[in-house]
Amino acid sequence: MPWRETSVMEERLRFVARLLEGEGMSDVCREFGISRKTGYKIFNRYKDDGLEALTDRSRRPVRYANQLPEPVEAMIVRLKKDKPHWGARKIRELLVRKLAGDVRVPSKSTVPAVLDRHGLVAHGGNVIIKAEVASVLYGIADSYKREARWQDTDAKVRRRLRGR
Question: Model-level pTM?
Answer without folding.
Answer: 0.46
